[in-house]
Amino acid sequence: MNLSPGLRDCYRGVRVAVTGASGFIGRWVARGLSTCRAELFLLVRDPVASAPIFTGYSICGTIIPVDLTCGPAVEAVWEQIRPAVVFHLAGYGVDRAEREDAGFRGVNVQAVEHAGRAAAKYHDPSWPWVQFVHAGSVAEYGPIGGSLVESSRENPATLYGKSKLAGTRALAGCCAETGLRGVTARLATVYGPGEHPGRLLPSLLEAAAGTEPICLSEGFQKRDFTYVEDVAEALIRLAVTRPTPGDVVNVVTGELTTVRSFAQTAARVLGISPTRLLFGALPVRYEEEMQHGPISNLKLKELTGWAPSIAIEEGIRRTVNFLAQCAAQESHG
C-alpha cells in the first residue's frame, strides 16, 4: 500500500482505534495506518493469538482485548483511549464456520451500537473528518437485481446480509441521535493475504503444490473481486472525507468477474494446470449468490477522488509474493 505523503500526514500522531484489528481487513488497515505513524489501538478478542499477526504484518500499536458485544466493556475502553477515528472492522459470518444467530446479532449489530455510541461520547474534538468507519457488505442489498447503487432498496436474503444491514442502520441511527460522523463502507468479494481458509484463493494456494483435481462450482456467478490493499486504502481515505453522517459508500472496483475467470487467472499465476480445475464438481450455493449488475463506486470516487484499481492478476501475484516473504521471515526467525 503506497499511501501519499499528504494522506499519511493526516494520521501522523492521531489516536486511531481498529476493531477486529487482527482480522482479514483489520490487519491491512492497521498496517497502512502504521506507515502513517498513527497512535494505534488494536482492539481484539484474543491478544495472544493476535500478536504474531501484528509482527508478521509490521503493525505497531497498543493491543487491547475487549468484548465488543459488552456495552460497559466497550465504554470503558473508549473512555481510556478516546480515539479521534475508529475503524470498526470486527464482523461475523464471512467464515462459513460462523453460523450462530447470537454471533450475527452480537457482533454485526450490538457491537456496532456499542462502539458507535462510545465513539460519540469519547472522542477527539479536534479531528475534523469521519469519526467512525464501519465495514458493511454488499450482501445487505440482497438478490434485488440490476446495478447496485447506495440508494438501491435493500432486501437481504441471508442471515449475514440481514445482520450487516441491521448494523448499518444501527450506525445511521446513532449518527442521527448523537451527531457522530459515521459512514458505512460496503465491501464486496475481498481477496488477498489473510483470507479465511476455505475461500477460493486460499483453496487454490493450498492446492497449488499438489497434482490432484481441484473441485469447483461451475463458476459462472459474477462478483466484484477487490484486492485487500485497495480496500484498506479506500477505508483510510474515506476517514478523511466529509460524507453525510450515517451515509453508505460502496468500496468496490465497479467491475464484475466470473468466479471461473478468477480461478483460471489464479491457476495461471500459481502454475496450476487448467486440466486440474474441475468446474461443476461442486454445487453453487445459490442462497449465498446475488445476481446483479455492476456495483457503482461513483460515490467513493466523488468523496475521495480515488477508486480501487489493482487488477486481479496483479492482486494474486501480490498475495503470492507477500505470503512468500512471510514464510521466509518465519524460517529466519
What is the count of β-strands?
13
Strand order of the largest sheet: 3-2-1-4-5-6-11
N- to C-terminal distance: 24 Å
Give the number of helices.
11
Structural class, from secondary structure content? alpha/beta
**Measured on Cα atoms, how large is the radius of gyration?**
19 Å
Estimate the global geometry from the Cα principal axes: globular
Query: Strand fraction band?
Result: 15-25%
Low-confidence stretches: none
Query: What is the ordering of alpha helices and beta strands?
Result: HEHEHEHEHEHEEHEEEHEEHEHH
Quick one: biggest sheet? 7 strands, parallel
Mean pLDDT comes to 95
| Helical amount | 40-55%
Can you give a write-up of this model?
This protein is of the alpha/beta class and 333 residues long. 42% of the residues lie in helices and 16% in strands. The protein has eleven helices and 13 strands. The chain has helices spanning 5-11, 24-35, 47-56, 71-81, 101-121, 159-178, 200-207, 228-238, 259-270, 298-304, 312-332; strands at residues 15-19, 39-44, 62-65, 85-88, 132-137, 182-187, 189-191, 214-216, 222-223, 225-227, 247-251, 257-258, 277-279. The strands form four sheets. The chain has a seven-stranded parallel beta sheet with strand order 3-2-1-4-5-6-11, with helices on both faces.
